[in-house]
Design a protein that fits this description.
about 260 residues; alpha+beta; Fructose-1,6-Bisphosphatase, Chain A, domain 1; D-Maltodextrin-Binding Protein, domain 2; 2 domains; 8-stranded mixed β-sheet; 5-stranded mixed β-sheet; about 35% helix; globular
């Protein structure tokens, strides 16, 4: 399928290639440099290297577009903004756990329309552009279109909740526990992996708190083009509200009601 954003998607995939090469070169390196940011989260030299590489390439290819990145903030003022998380899952990266990746999005007027999630240590990549479907590459290396599940009852649903600490800190732990009693299965897969499992139809619900736009923007087109629905926990669209709820669409209203305290 074609999309009005095919050229932007091609560039995003090129950026993901650059990112994968830079990040994999330092994955499990014994001399990896790690620092603590003011918010007490870790940042590695690989985070910085990846974001610099992406920004340099965008400066050449899209000099008039804006950029929002986790490590170097906002640059430019445009209705078109590239949103970058150089390594989503930095804690996994620095511990040698392969569940991490680079997230690259293009938002137009604040709405994410292109998303690439690339996880080189797992050998996987997912991508989407508005109107063009959601895709991944499987073991054969051939693109494969993906779609969410058709589960329509919470009792049959698989839920990923990211971490108990997030839910406790947001004051929602009791509602999570109540929701977990209503679903078939609950796990904490974490980071981009939960959303990609959802987009492939392998789980049905994922939600988290204490998230920034660069944690979510690339995931939104992939989930939505796969047929899912993506909002905040309060039902607001977009990556700007500090929380996320992604579902296969059929379950979304029921989960929103459960998290609002309704039974």
């Amino acid at each position: 399928m074609t999309s009005a954003y095919d050229e932007d998607l091609s560039l995003a995939i090129e950026l993901a290639d650059l990112a994968d090469a830079a990040s994999l070169a330092r994955f499990r390196a014994v001399d990896l440099e790690v620092h603590t940011k003011p918010d007490r989260t870790p940042v590695t030299e690989a985070d910085l290297t990846v974001e610099r590489a992406i920004r340099d390439r965008l400066a050449q290819s899209r000099p008039d577009d804006g950029i929002l990145g986790e490590e170097f903030g906002t640059a430019g003022d445009s209705t078109r903004q590239w949103i970058i998380d150089p390594i989503d899952g930095t804690s996994n990266f620095l511990r040698g756990v392969p569940v991490w990746g680079t997230l690259i999005a293009l938002a137009v007027d604040g709405i994410p329309v292109v998303g690439v999630a690339s996880s080189p240590a797992m050998g996987r990549r997912w991508w989407a552009a508005a109107g063009g479907g959601a895709w991944t590459d499987d073991a054969s290396g051939e693109p494969r279109r993906i779609s969410v599940s058709q589960v329509a009852d919470l009792a049959d649903a698989s839920l990923s909740f990211q971490s108990l600490a997030q839910w406790r800190g947001a004051g929602y732990l009791d509602r999570l526990l109540q929701l977990s009693e209503r679903v078939w299965r609950d796990r904490a897969y974490g980071d981009l992996w939960s959303y990609m499992l959802l987009a492939e139809g392998l789980i049905d619900i994922t939600a988290e708190f204490d998230v920034k736009p660069y944690d979510l923007a690339a995931l939104i087109p992939i989930v939505e083009e796969a047929g899912g629905r993506f909002t905040s926990v309060d039902g607001e669209p977009g990556p700007w509200h500090g929380s996320s709820l992604a579902t296969n669409g059929r379950l979304h209203d029921a989960v929103l009601a459960a998290l609002d305290g309704e039974r």
